[in-house]
Amino acid sequence: MRNGLFLTILLSFLCPVTLTSQTKDSLLGVKLRPEVLLLVTEVETKTGEKIDAEFIELPEFELGTSYISDDGVAVIRVDYKIEKDPKKLQAVIVHELLHLRLRVNGYPTFLFSPTVKTAKGLAQKVEQSNVNDVTSMIEHRIFESEMKKFGLFDVIDLAGDILRLAKRNKGREDEQSDTINYARAILEYQNVRDIEAVRAAYKSNGWERSLRSGRVLADIIRNPALKSPSDSEATFLRCVTELYLPQNASFVFTLTIDPSVKAYRQMIINIKKPPPVRVKRPNR
Asked: At what angle do helices 161-168 and 176-188 cross, to 10 degrees?
């Protein structure tokens, strides 16, 4: 979870700072409510391992992250700066547990194929963070009602960071990450005035493309039922198509299961030419 920007799912591996032991009713030193312990139980039962939780130093705006390791262990990392804030710490833990519950129930991560290239370089290197952010937004939509039930929006202030980033980056052209951030504001900010402040900053920056595509992304994510892993995959494909492909593109994105990953479901993003459209000729 980010302080204002919910964090991406995958962790950039950083050196741990503090390790706090887990007991049957606590994680990282915080006593968990019974309904939160149910999340812990589900994740640990389906992985067959105890959750690996640590405090580490995370980058600006990031409060926590989670993933399933290659050997099948559920991992939670939380920024050490909130170790002494029990309410915020529990909110971050709950948020990461909700992501992990999806992961152990077959909801996929997405990874660019090493063969996909962009003008900036290999997509896996220069665009993967955007893929992670899109995945995160889709998953937030899936468990939005639970975030509200657990009171996460009351503890973590989502507003402000996107606006600050937009003002900081005034003068440059907008990028896919700006489109994603505008969609995030629409979907996750709780106050319409905060969304409008972001829209005004984008307008001032001349980021019309991000304003348009951000609205489209938000509509794509907001409309589907999103009740299954296949729903998540279909929504993801529509999002990356909006982000990266012009309307007259001569190729399409595809998803295939990554057979090298056994501990969780990972889909490889590739591109291919669409099948030719066959025109049915009238009978003579």
From this structure: 150
